Amino acid sequence: MKKNNIVLVGFMGTGKSTVGKKLSSKLGWGFVDTDDWIEKREHLSIPEIFSTKGEVYFRKVEAEVIQEVMASEHQVIATGGGAVLSLHNRSRMLSQGTVIQLKADADTIIKRVEKDTHRPLLQGNIKDKVYEIMEKRKYAYEFADIILDTSAGSVDHLVEQIYARI
Ligand code: S3P
């Protein structure tokens, strides 16, 4: 095990929380979802934070939460899909953890998130939004130490693959 934490990054709907929870129990490590921390800290849901305080405010809190959680050890940390947009966040993730990018193709993501009402960036025409944001973030996740495709295969298999490589 090279580093003290495992950080899962990736586009919305790539399975960061689902894989993260299973991986953490396999390792006997803690599990942290940065979006959950943000909601607890702000006493507001993610959509409420976006609508009342705006995305810039959300990104500020997200960066603070990432800094806080990365300071501890032996945790699997699932980050929000946009956390990697900040160079500061990316450097912190790489210095304090093994960064794993989960990826999936656009159609798989659309299927997973199409009923979603909890993601402010995907309101309206979800399909168009997914393609548009994916295009903008094309290279944003490539800094990761390990890249895994979650489009096919079971969660257990993905967890095994990660376990074998860390
Ligand atoms: C976001 C992804 C969301 C959440 C927020 C913004 C993004 O997390 O942080 O809605 O910018 O991609 P998930 O990746 O867990 O959906």
Automatic annotation (TrEMBL):
The record lists the catalysed reaction(s) as:
shikimate + ATP = 3-phosphoshikimate + ADP + H(+)
Question: Which cofactor does this sequence's record say it needs?
Answer: Mg(2+)
Localization (cell): Cytoplasm
Task: Tell me its EC number(s), please.
Answer: 2.7.1.71
Transferase: present as a keyword of the record? Answer: yes
**Which keywords describe this protein according to UniProt?**
Amino-acid biosynthesis, Aromatic amino acid biosynthesis, ATP-binding, Cytoplasm, Kinase, Magnesium, Metal-binding, Nucleotide-binding, Transferase
Q: Which positions in this protein are listed as binding Mg(2+)?
A: 17
Which residues does the record give as ATP binding sites? 13-18, 119
**Residues engaged in binding substrate:** 35, 59, 81, 137
The cross-references to SUPFAM superfamilies, in alphabetical order and at most eight, read:
P-loop containing nucleoside triphosphate hydrolases (SSF52540)
A Pfam family:
SKI
Q: Does the keyword Kinase apply?
A: yes
Q: What class of enzyme is it?
A: transferase
* Principal location listed in the UniProt entry: cytoplasm
Which is one GO molecular function term here?
A: shikimate kinase activity
**Cofactor binding note:** Binds 1 Mg(2+) ion per subunit.
Question: So, what pathway does this thing act in?
Answer: Metabolic intermediate biosynthesis; chorismate biosynthesis; chorismate from D-erythrose 4-phosphate and phosphoenolpyruvate: step 5/7
Known role: Catalyzes the specific phosphorylation of the 3-hydroxyl group of shikimic acid using ATP as a cosubstrate.
Q: Quaternary arrangement and interactors, per the entry?
A: Monomer.
The entry's family comment says: Belongs to the shikimate kinase family.
Q: What is this protein called?
A: Shikimate kinase
Please name the source species: Chengkuizengella axinellae
